[in-house]
Design a protein that fits this description.
Elements (H helix, E strand, L loop, with lengths): L9 H14 L2 H13 L2 H4 L1 H13 L3 H10 L5 H13 L3 H13 L6 H14 L2 H13 L2 H4 L1 H13 L3 H10 L5 H13 L3 H13 L6 H13 L3 H14 L1 H4 L1 H13 L3 H10 L5 H13 L3 H13 L6 H14 L2 H13 L7 H14 L2 H9 L6 H13 L3 H13 L6 H9 L4 H17 L6 H13 L3 H10 L5 H13 L3 H13 L6 H13 L3 H15 L5 H13 L3 H11 L5 H14 L2 H13 L5 H13 L3
């Protein structure tokens, strides 16, 4: 443009900066910034300055955004709001609130966008007092009656913070309620596990004649899943498909992806992602995170590679999922390539979650010197950074280095939290490291630190239980001031570890009698115990209780336990039938379980059938072939 003799004006610069913020083009943005400075436009034109500030805020370059903000000749509501939004979006809620207070001190009146950003900052840090203060001010100025955007934002804020009665009270007094108002309240109930209440409000919404939108459908899907009403779930799925909501809505698409992936239906989840008209990293991230969660790490890495080939811009979540998958599978080469790419993406330089996950990945590889080097190069390393390194040393039987890091961390002024201590205790589960765990326990008692802390207490129960010190585990459990579901799960796993089946079943009944509802992990412990003890009928009883007591259908992992139980009992044909019936055939761990059972029971024909199915489904894991060869050799075929 300039070569043709046309000079860029304000509109040109603003348009380019907006585009850079939208597509993550930081390098181009920096060049434009340099051009603006050379021409003296930053101090001269407030519109250009605000656009530059907004670009840096969107890209997460908050220090640069603050520098631009400080250089502006006039700091108006647009500039304050852009910087506040940047702080809020990237998790710096306290900084956003401080900035709002500075704005008020300067006598600058906030607009609706400013208030919405402030409310989001309050959600980030759980500042309930500030929310009520904002509510009172909005009520005093009559904004709740005149501005639907602000009223809906406040309902949404109360809902997300768990103040559902306040959200409902505000909803009830609104003179007019649109679909966003209803969605905010319904999502609040669903988000806090109150599926039936959410569906009641959904029914009220429909009776008032409002048409559900994509968000409504997504929330309905969650709520029906919570109460285990699969018939209604299928009705919602059919309605979404008929109305074509899924095709253009990323939010609903991600709900579908999560729902299918949680059940191990990776082919169906991929179909949703692949047929979506909007190719955004959030859909890919949803599937990748679920794959890592259910143990299909190779599938997650393949998704990342497909993203790269399709030039879909990765986010921090993409890198975190990929790094975890590499660490879980020991994919060293992929991990190194990820490290190199992260260094090239400017936004990731400040994202501590990504670098902390990288430390964990290298620790999993056993490359502890590299993990420590990554940590030392972090200017803003925190307790999570150190905890990941410490746990790495302990997991690789180097408790001396672990305690050296613990000491060095404290010298730097970073105090260990309950998770750090729990992490150290949890990994002290062999004969040598147990001594360190007991030492740490004694230190906790001596200093009075973390006494009564549920996280530390729960981990002590787990540590002593896994090491076979049943008496000490019981003593710690009974001494806890309170028990949550994690406490009971840890106590239950102590007996499950020793295969004390009757004791474990009694603990489960005692847990329910104390008013603590089981979670999916509780049932996983029970199902695994039944599997190891070949108690198929008992496992069926617990499996059927999942939908009733958790108000959700069984997950992939629950089905995997049932399949494993069938394998232990020698019912291999039934195991194969269940794999086909529930559609978990895309997950290698399930097939490996069947092949291992074939080896134990000496069933070569079923082993060959199992291997052929995995090969046809493209689960071409070389270890499967090795296992098949071993089965044939042992049975002299």
């Amino acid at each position: 443009m300039e070569r043709d003799g046309f000079l860029p004006d304000v509109v040109t610069y603003v348009s380019i900066l907006k585009a850079c913020g939208a597509i993550g083009a930081l390098k181009i943005g920096l060049r434009v910034h340099g051009d603006i400075i050379r021409k003296g436009l930053l101090e001269a034109d407030l519109v250009i300055g605000s656009a530059l500030l907004d670009m840096y805020a969107k890209l997460g370059c908050l220090a640069m955004a603050r520098n631009v903000f400080d250089m502006l000749p006039i700091q108006n509501v647009v500039a304050f709001t852009a910087l506040m939004t940047g702080y809020t979006r990237h998790g710096f809620g306290e900084d956003a609130i401080k900035l709002f207070d500075q704005m008020a001190d300067k006598g600058i009146f906030p607009d609706a966008t400013t208030v919405v950003s402030l409310l989001k900052a309050c959600i980030n840090i759980g500042a309930t007092d500030k929310i009520e203060e904002i509510h009172a001010e909005m009520e005093r100025k009559g904004f709740l009656e005149s501005d639907m955007t602000l009223a809906n934002a406040l309902i949404d804020t109360y809902s997300k913070c768990g103040s559902l009665l306040k959200a409902q009270s505000l909803f009830d007094v609104l003179p007019f309620r649109d679909v966003v108002s209803w969605n905010s309240l319904i999502a609040g109930y669903a988000g806090h596990g109150l599926g039936e209440e959410a569906l009641k409000w959904l029914q009220k919404m429909q009776l008032e004649g409002l048409t559900p939108d994509a968000v409504t459908y997504a929330t309905a899907l969650k709520a029906h899943g919570m109460i285990g009403d699969m018939n209604k779930t299928e009705e919602v799925l059919a309605a979404i498909e008929n109305e074509g909501v899924l095709k253009g809505d990323i939010y609903v698409g991600s709900i579908f992806v999560n729902l299918y992936a949680k059940c191990g239906l990776l082919a169906e989840a991929w179909e949703v992602l692949n047929t979506s008209s909007v190719q955004d990293s959030s859909l890919w991230n949803a599937l990748m995170s679920e794959c890592v969660l259910i143990g299909c790490n190779d599938y997650a890495l393949n998704l990342y590679k497909r993203m790269y080939l399709q030039a879909i811009l990765p986010s921090s979540v993409t890198f975190v999922c990929s790094l975890r998958a590499c660490g879980n599978t020991g994919a060293v080469k992929d991990g190194q390539q990820l490290h190199a790419r992260i260094l090239q993406v400017a936004d990731m330089g400040r994202d501590l979650t990504v670098w902390n996950t990288m430390i964990k990945m290298y620790a999993n590889f056993g490359w502890l010197s590299v993990a420590e080097l990554v940590l030392k190069r972090l200017p803003n390393r925190d307790v999570v950074s150190w905890t990941n390194l410490i746990s790495g040393y302990i997991e690789h039987n180097d408790s001396g280095e672990a305690f050296r890091c613990l000491e060095h961390m404290q010298i730097e002024g970073v105090s260990p939290d309950a998770v750090t201590v729990a992490c150290c205790l949890k990994t002290c589960c062999d004969t040598l490291a147990l001594f360190n765990g007991q030492e740490l326990h004694c230190e906790i008692v001596r200093q009075g630190s973390f006494i009564g802390d549920l996280v530390v207490g729960n981990t002590l129960v787990y540590m002593y239980g896994i090491c076979g010190h049943l008496t000490l585990a019981i003593e710690v459990f009974e001494g806890l001031p309170d028990h949550d579901v994690i406490s009971w799960n840890g106590f239950l796993s102590v007996y499950a570890q020793q295969r004390y089946t009757n004791n474990a079943f009694s603990i489960f009944e005692r847990m329910k009698a104390c008013g603590i509802g089981p979670d999916d992990s509780t049932f996983l412990i029970l199902l695994n115990l039944c599997s190891q003890s070949c108690l198929f009928h008992q496992s069926q009883t617990y499996f059927e209780a999942i939908s009733k007591q958790l108000s959700m259908p069984p997950t992939y992992r629950h089905y995997a336990c049932m399949i494993d139980c069938l394998c232990h009992c020698g019912s291999l044909t039934k195991a194969l039938n269940m794999i086909e019936k529930v559609g978990v055939h895309y997950c290698p761990p399930v097939w490996r379980s069947v092949l291992n059972a074939c080896r134990f029971w000496g069933t070569t024909d079923i082993a060959e059938e199992t291997f052929n199915r995995t090969w046809l489904l493209d689960n071409r894991d070389p270890s499967m072939y090795v296992l098949l060869c071993q089965i044939k050799q042992e049975n002299q075929i």
